## 1
Amino acid sequence: MLRIYTARARYDAWLVADRLNQAGIRAHVFNQHAQSIVGDVPPDVAQPQVWIERAQDEERARLLLARLDEEAARGGSAQCAKCGEESPANFDLCWNCGAPL
Ligand SMILES: [Zn+2]
């Protein structure tokens, strides 16, 4: 297992893991509920993280991440009126509760 990404928000971690899995890179999200303890532990430990199962996928995973970063820089995010979670601006539905954005 190899940590490939430390996310700023939960949707961010899930989006990255989803894209990696779609590309055939087995990825998992850890720490997704840890944000409430930020302040007690170093931020790097408390933020949601994406790990990949096979170290040999690292190069492909990093290329994919670079592309996601470019997309995110163009898009921004939108806050859900129902649950308050942020979703990428190009989403039609909230990733968390499914409400229209
Ligand atoms: Zn929502």
## 2
Amino acid sequence: MFDILWVKHLHVTCVGLSIGLFVVRGSLELLSWPWRHWRLLRMAPHLVDTVLLSSALWMVWRTGQYPFVDTWLTAKVLALLVYIVLGRFALGKNTPQRQRPLFFAAALLSVAYIVGVALTRSPVWGLG
Ligand code: HEM
């Protein structure tokens, strides 16, 4: 049986990998470097994000904390949707090159917000 601490370590490792892979792809995209030619950079984010979300769902189940019940998890899920949309624009083939830095920076801000929410278990980072 999985231990909660073990799964949390897995979740946090995937968070680091996921953000790292996004930073690499976003930076290369800004430099107009054809990163899609590199199979690892195309495939790895899907694998990492699947493990990230699976571990999240597992912890939701095991800790009995649910989005739309616990406000910090509601904030996390909504901010995750924002991050996904902004990330898609930052990396999207149809995004004008001059708009990319804006989407990239906004996506990084949204994921930083998610990490803050996770660490404080508060939608306002415990500042409210
Ligand atoms: C990019 C997306 C995500 C990031 C950056 C992220 C980040 C984190 C971090 C850093 C922690 C560890 C907090 C600590 O040290 O205690 C954590 C824990 C956790 N995350 Fe995530 N997470 C993400 C997505 C999600 C999603 C989508 C869910 C659920 C729907 C989720 C549910 C949880 C739960 C239940 C915990 C454990 C909380 C506890 O120990 O009580 N995470 N997350």
